[in-house]
């Protein structure tokens, strides 16, 4: 049977799709290059916020409209987990709706249709044709952020055993991966459910000792109140660890953070950022913030802008508050209007753009290690104005898919690691020449 997987949402969903693809292939099912060629189309849905839900439903409906006789359409993942009955009722073209972590059940369904009867066994996923790969070290979340539906979808935090993570890391490196990005709902909660403290720092050391040829190890999604001195020490001690950290702060005013049920010690957050920069002066920090949260006053919003000006975070994403059913925040008073939320989003974006330009300008003259991801000369979408810097690269400062790029003049192949000297800066991207 030929299958096609469409993946929506975050990097953690991408890992789930890769695992599922490997599992299906291990049982003789073959991937199709396009949905029209597949016997079964699988949509890995996202249900985090309204925009993600709408994208998932629109994608399912698009596949339903193109569904041919004999083809099966299935949805799985976060949206399917949380709104299974609604999807079944509203989209009759769906042949199956499965939730989170039901790859084995899907496999049994397809094997029954094929008349197969095979024993299932754990399968290491096949890395995509890329020099970078996400590695999920835990799933679920024990935090009870008032605005977030992840615990409703994923359940409590469940850490993978370190031996399993190390084995997968070694497998990825052996198959050509140069950058591994560790992901979880909260990396710094890793191991707490297993009764272990500072388990993330221990895991980093074990991965790098087992796979010393790994060039980059990147950390995403780390709660600031769990960034320990030992974690900072390990990050600074190993050259393979990218001097990069994603700290999802969500806001900067203590009162808003309390209403969010988030760590509200703003002074503590500043201390963590200072400690990270003292240990790694070149560290790039990324964060995400919600604007327009229920009850957010003009003063509270201005506090956020002032914090951004003071901290000068390298990479920032903004989200307008999305009222999610089943969350505590959905019932809070003083829900702000869509107009106010849009205005604050626009103002925050403009404010951060000015900061980003200053930070980008400081990179000029630096010599950086670059991971080559593409060549505009071989791309049908290459733009003539960029052909003087045809190599599409990322530096340690740039996480896959969410941050900027470095366009470099030189000769190299996709997947190579090269050195480039930054010669010019744009708002988010850089221009470099190969050293």
Notes on the protein architecture:
The radius of gyration is 22 Å and the shape is globular. The protein has 13 helices and 18 strands. The longest helix has 24 residues, at 338-361. Helix 7 runs parallel beside helix 8 (199-210). Helices cover 35% and strands 21% of the residues. Strands 6-9-10-11-12-13 form a 6-stranded parallel beta sheet. It has a 5-stranded parallel beta sheet with strand order 2-1-3-4-5, with helices on both faces. It has helices at 11-26, 50-66, 78-82, 84-90, 103-114, 150-154, 162-174, 199-210, 229-237, 254-259, 266-279, 298-311, 338-361, and strands spanning 2-7, 30-31, 40-45, 72-77, 96-97, 132-136, 138-139, 158-159, 179-183, 216-219, 241-246, 284-291, 315-320, 367-375, 391-394, 406-409, 417-425, 430-434. Strand 3, helix 2 and strand 4 (72-77) form a beta-alpha-beta unit. It has 435 residues and is α/β, with parallel strands linked by helices. The chain folds into 3 domains: 2-114, Methylthiotransferase, N-terminal domain (Rossmann fold, 3-Layer(aba) Sandwich); 132-361, pyruvate-formate lyase- activating enzyme; 367-434, Nucleic acid-binding proteins (OB fold (Dihydrolipoamide Acetyltransferase, E2P)), CATH 2.40.50.
The assigned CATH architecture of the largest domain is: Alpha-Beta Horseshoe
Helix content estimate: 25-40%
Q: Any idea what the CATH superfamily of the largest domain is called? A: tm_1862 like domain
The rounded Rg comes to 22 Å
Principal-axes geometry comes out as globular
Number of strands: 18
CATH class of the largest domain: Alpha Beta
Portion in beta strands = 15-25%
């Amino acid at each position: 049977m030929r299958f096609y997987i469409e993946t929506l949402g975050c990097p953690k969903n991408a890992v789930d799709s890769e695992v599922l693809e490997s599992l299906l292939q291990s049982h003789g099912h073959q991937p199709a290059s396009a949905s029209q060629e597949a016997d079964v189309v699988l949509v890995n849905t996202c249900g985090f916020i309204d925009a993600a839900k709408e994208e998932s439903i629109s994608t399912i409906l698009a596949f339903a409209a193109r569904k041919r006789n004999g083809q099966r359409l299935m949805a799985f993942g976060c949206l399917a987990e949380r709104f299974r009955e609604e999807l079944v009722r509203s989209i009759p073209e769906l042949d199956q709706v499965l939730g989170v972590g039901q790859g084995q059940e899907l496999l049994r369904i397809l094997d029954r249709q094929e008349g197969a009867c095979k024993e299932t066994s754990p399968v290491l996923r096949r890395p995509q044709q890329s020099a970078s790969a996400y590695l999920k070290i835990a799933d679920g979340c024990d935090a009870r952020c008032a605005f977030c539906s992840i615990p409703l979808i994923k359940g409590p935090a469940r850490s993978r055993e370190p031996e399993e993570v190390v084995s997968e890391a070694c497998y990825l490196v052996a198959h050509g991966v140069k950058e591994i990005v560790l992901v979880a709902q909260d990396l710094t909660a890793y191991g707490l459910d297993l009764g272990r403290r500072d388990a993330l720092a221990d895991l980093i050391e074990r991965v790098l000792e087992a796979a010393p040829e790994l060039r980059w190890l990147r950390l995403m999604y780390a709660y600031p109140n769990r960034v320990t001195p030992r974690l900072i020490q390990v990050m600074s001690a190993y050259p393979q660890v990218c001097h990069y950290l994603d700290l999802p702060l969500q806001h900067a005013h203590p009162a808003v953070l309390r209403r969010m049920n988030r760590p509200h010690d703003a002074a503590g957050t500043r201390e963590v950022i200072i400690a990270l920069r003292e240990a790694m002066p070149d560290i790039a920090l990324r964060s995400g913030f919600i604007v327009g949260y229920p009850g957010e006053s003009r003063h509270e919003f201005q506090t956020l802008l002032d914090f951004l000006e003071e901290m000068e975070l390298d990479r920032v994403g903004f989200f307008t508050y999305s009222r999610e059913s089943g969350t505590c925040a959905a019932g809070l008073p003083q829900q702000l209007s869509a107009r106010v939320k849009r205005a604050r989003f626009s103002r925050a974006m403009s404010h951060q753009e000015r900061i980003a330009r200053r930070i980008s300008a400081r990179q000029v003259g630096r010599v950086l290690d670059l991971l080559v991801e593409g060549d505009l000369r071989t791309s049908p979408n290459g733009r003539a104005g960029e052909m003087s810097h045809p190599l599409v690269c990322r530096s340690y400062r740039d996480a896959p898919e969410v941050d900027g790029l470095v366009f470099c003049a030189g000769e190299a192949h996709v997947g190579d690691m090269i050195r480039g000297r930054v010669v010019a800066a744009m708002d988010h991207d850089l221009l470099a020449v190969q050293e």
